[in-house]
Amino acid sequence: MPVIRMEVEIDAPQQICFDLARSIDSHMESTARTREKAIGGVTSGLIRLGESVTWEAVHFGVKQRLTAKITEMEEPWFFVDEMVQGAFKRFYHKHEFIPLGEKKTRMIDTFDYTSPLGVLGKLADVLILERYMRRFLLERNLYLKEKAERQARGCGE
């Protein structure tokens, strides 16, 4: 059960960071490399507590679908999405937003997951999956940082 934890400091207010992180549109923009798109549930705008989204993406050359639901949310402090259906055995993904003054936020991203296939899944974690997921989350977080900082400067979305 790998747990990937990342922290990013963003020169933008907490609310901007919180909203961009739960924006379906920003998620699709940040994951263009894997052609991720929302195909069910909430497919655009801001996802809210109790709502779900079904994503379709290409990972490892295979088109996959994954449905995640927002199971916890305290605006603008944190939200949690959990897999309802998909390739993982399970995942719990917490997004936290800690204000560091009026115009700076620490975004903490904790992705706790279990791969399918028992021992084979654990081997896949060591060899490929954990590194792949770390890179995927880092790319997304850096995209959100750049977009939030642009928005905070008044340079559009």
From TrEMBL:
InterPro entries: START-like_dom_sf. One of its GO terms (biological process) is cell division. SUPFAM superfamilies: Bet v1-like (SSF55961). Keywords: Cell cycle, Cell division. Gene3D superfamilies: 3.30.530.20. This is Cell division protein. It comes from Brevibacillus panacihumi W25.
